[in-house]
Amino acid sequence: MMKKRFLLLFLSGMMAVGNILSAQNITDSEKKRMSFALLETIEKLETLSSLSDADQANEYISLFSDSDVMVFNDLIGVSDVEMMPLGEYVSCLRRMKNVVVRFSNVERSRPYIDAGSLCVKVSFDKTISYIDQRGVHYSTDDVYGRPYRITAVFSYDDFDGSCRIESFNGCLNGVSTLSSEHLVLKKKRWHEDLKFRKAEVPVRKGFYDMDECAELDFDKVGFGLLPAGAAAEDWYCMQNMPWDWDPDKSLSAEAGADGFLNLHTKTRHMRLKAYNSTAPAGAYHMEGELDGRISVGNETGVEFRYMFNLGNQINIGALVSAGVSYSYIDVSLKDFRYSYDYTTSAKRAYDFNVFGQKFHTVDAVVSLGTAMEYAFARRWSLDFAFGCKAYYNIYAGAGDVYCMYEVNHTGKGTDYIKGHFKKETVVNAVDFKSCIRTLPLSLIAKLGLAVSISSSSLLTFGLGFEQGLNDYYQSELIPFKSYKYPVMYSTKSLM
Predict the structure, then answer these.
(1) Any bridge partners for residue 421, and if so which?
(2) What's the CA gap between 72 and 126, in Å, rounded?
(3) Which of 158, 157, 39 is nearest to 106 (CA)?
(4) Looking at residue 396, what is its pLDDT?
(5) Residue 390 has what pLDDT?
(6) Residue 373 and residue 314: Cα distance in Å, rounded?
(7) Is there a contact between 180 and 167 (Cβ–Cβ < 8 Å)?
(8) pTM above 0.85, yes or no
(9) 399-454: pLDDT as tens digits
(10) pLDDT tens track for 251-268
(11) 56, 188, 219, 305: which has the fewest C-beta neighbours closer than 10 Å?
(12) How many CB atoms lie within 10 A of CB 271?
């Protein structure tokens, strides 16, 4: 196929060659020998360029007029020199494996005489690919997205009928060659979503501005090439990375002596979070003959977590939290009646329209449990926690008894009174704090939606459920003793 391709090319140029050779008294037979010698030399040049063994290397060198001729450096990332001695070029290429060279788009100039020799310029596209000693794959198509354009000068020697290469130059048509100080990134599974900041050096198929974040393309073997000349942290950016969702993860880069860029992920296991939660209604479940019951709870504290990554954006770990809980309870009765003998000869009867009291508690709380996080989108994750909570009462207080009532003094008529029984006037006022269990326990479960607002900050919104394992307030601990009724007051204080 190669011979047929080049044969058509050279036959099309025979007339031009003939015009010049006629002036030099060259026979038609000599013209044909020169053309076919040139064709044969180019075919050999392509075939032998792989330098698969020592014999091929020696034969390749013999195609040149001088073993020390300077040739174009088309070795990708090996050396920064534009031209190098032929022997050095061959020595470098011999160290590579799986070398593949292809020529295409061959063009030739009109022949001309130079120093008594018949010369022809031949231009062609050259692609080259190979695997270096580290196992890194290089290809002009992958690295530059285009072939080299080679211009070689051939001279014909009619004495032995051979063509030799006098010069061998090339270029990339405006694209800079890859620096020998470039770094190589070996693709790993977690690299798939990495975005890299590319310098003004071709990193596969073109140029990129330093400020542009674009995907680093990996070749079919799994290697990506990064330009030299910048700090490692300038070669990548954190956009659209999986751990950009997770503030516990960070990425660091280190350039190795072997030319590989080593990327390391670091997981921050420990996390400290401030929280505030509130139960606007029904914080406590209350039993008894109550017509009205209102309970509100609020809790503020800090939470410590130690998390482990399970992959697929899932973290799981243990949590411990400590805080302060503030509770407000309001209970009331309606249409409440009773009477009692307050002297040996008189009886007092009560008829309450409304009877109630308010209570306040402050508790220290400690929680132990398990937490799980699932990052389902960039910067967004679900937060789930469950565990056990313990309360220790710090303060408990009861407010005034509020009421609207009628009181009947036997033998003295009926008084209609509206107001409050002051705490100090209630003879049998219950000691509220002493009725609180020493260590009430609860089961807790929380589900939240977290959004990452910075590399180290999360804002979480959620709902929670808490179920007490034992009673917080035990009214049976202090019975009314000899008194049958909840409210009695001295006559001196109110009469």
Answers:
(1) 401
(2) 12
(3) 39
(4) 86
(5) 95
(6) 6
(7) no
(8) no
(9) 766 666 565 555 444 444 444 454 444 444 456 777 788 889 999 999 999 887 77
(10) 667 777 888 877 777 777
(11) 188
(12) 19
Helix 28-48 vs helix 14-23: crossing angle, to nearest 10:
130
Check residue 238 and give its pLDDT.
42
Question: For residue 66, what is the domain's CATH number?
Answer: 3.10.450.50
Last-in-domain residue among 266, 297, 319: 266
Lookup: tokens for 426? 């209630």
Residue 341 lies in a domain: yes
Question: What pLDDT was estimated at residue 493?
Answer: 36
Contacts for 165 with CB less than 8 Å, ≥ 6 apart: 41, 45, 63, 64, 65, 69, 152, 153, 154
Question: Quick one: 358 and 476 in the same domain?
Answer: yes
Its domain, for residue 322, covers 270-494
Residue 241 lies in a domain: yes
How far is the CA of 190 from the CAs of 193, 264, 311, 313, in angstroms?
A: 7, 11, 10, 12
Reported for 341-344, long-range contacts at CB under 8 A and 24+ positions apart, including other chains, are 342/488, 342/491
Residues 159, 112 share a domain: yes
Residue 123 near residue 151 (C-beta atoms within 8 A):
yes
Instruction: Report the C-alpha gap between 242 and 314 in whole angstroms.
Output: 11
Helix (H) or strand (E) holding 141: helix 140-143
Tell me the backbone φ, ψ of residue 60, rounded to 5 degrees: -60, -45
Same-domain status, 482 and 374:
yes
Counting as low any pLDDT under 70, the low residues of the chain are 1-28, 30-31, 188-217, 227-252, 311-312, 340-350, 378, 400-431, 455-456, 475-495
Domain count, the chain: 3
Q: What CA–CA distance (Å, rounded) separates 384 from 446?
A: 6
Longest dimension (CA), the chain: 161
Could you say which of 266, 293, 312 is where a domain stops? 266
- Residue 152's pLDDT is 95
User: Which ranges constitute the DSSP H helices of 373-421?
Assistant: none
Considering the domain architecture, whether residues 315 and 246 belong to the same structural domain is answered as no
User: What DSSP string describes 243-284?
Assistant: GGS-TTEEEEEEE-TTSBEEEEEEE--EEEEEEEEEE-S--S
Are both 21 and 99 inside the same structural domain?
yes
pLDDT at 223: 80
Instruction: Indicate the SS3 state at residue 76.
Output: coil
Measured at the CA of 473, the angle between CA 467 and CA 475, to 5 degrees, comes to: 135
- For residues 117 and 194, membership in a common domain is answered with no
Q: Rounded CA gap, 148 and 139, in Å? A: 11
Q: Which pLDDT belongs to residue 343?
A: 65
The four Cα atoms 48, 40, 64, 17 give a dihedral, to 10 degrees, of -150
The residues with which 171 forms a beta bridge, in sequence order, are: 149
